[in-house]
Amino acid sequence: MPSLWKRITFSVASVLCVGSVALLVVALSTERWVTGRILCKTGAEIVNASHPELDQFIGDIYYGLFQGGKSKKCGLGKRRSKIYIFPKLIRTLNSGLHMMVILFLLVAIGFALVSLSFCIYNARKVPYQSIKGHKGLYLWNVIAAFFGALGVLCFLAAMKQHSLTERVANYQENLFVLVVLDDSLDWSFWLGVGSVTTHFAVCGVVAMSRFKLPKPEIKKPEEPTISALDLLY
Question: What is the largest CA-CA distance in the chain?
Fold first, then answer.
């Protein structure tokens, strides 16, 4: 049976693993990986809009790994539309890179669950094999962090190097040309980054479990000493 300190540290590590899985699941399922502003270039050129009038042709866009949305202003008021990455839009993007992002994040979730099971095991039992103890926990968390980092880096590469926002914004736009004024990473992306840092925190907590706390010393009651004078009385 592990000591109280080890049970506490491995329980904290288990909570962190659950948090990492939750962060990745929310990141995968939400639509706020990227947000930005889009200008309807065609509408602005038709009316020869000057700088103050351009605000009437500026809309917004947001999207995640599976879906998103945009609102465009092309002189006909604000028109909102839904964006679905699968099954057609993915063909116009760098589909291999986009699928790698999803695959890497799913693999990171898998290894985070493996790490969770090992944390629970170590909180209840003392493993006989080193791979089931601290070394195994270090290994699974480093692998989970590695694949999570690969996922967010691949998405960053797709966004910056392959004009991801511009391709998403202009999908199925036959009459108008939309220009991306600015785009930025939003909170769904940073949840993925937070999951990576969580695994390093798990490694730190696991390392703390190896510290041995000093045991409180219990003083034994002193036995009364009997001298020769006491025996005379």
Answer: 123
Handedness of CA 177, 181, 187, 189 (dihedral sign): positive
Specify the CATH number for 4-209; select among 3.30.70, 1.10.10, 2.30.29, 1.20.140: 1.20.140
Q: Of all helices (H) and strands (E), which one includes residue 185?
A: strand 178-185
What are 84-110's pLDDT values in tens digits?
A: 999 889 988 888 999 999 999 999 999
How far apart CA 139 and CA 205 sit, in angstroms, is 14
The tokens describing 122, both together, are 């170590």
Q: How far apart are CA 141 and CA 108, in angstroms?
A: 9
pTM surpassing 0.70?
yes
Rounded Cα distance between 195 and 83, Å, is 26
Please report where in the chains the tokens 């996922």 appear, as a residue. 151
DSSP SS3 for 213 = coil
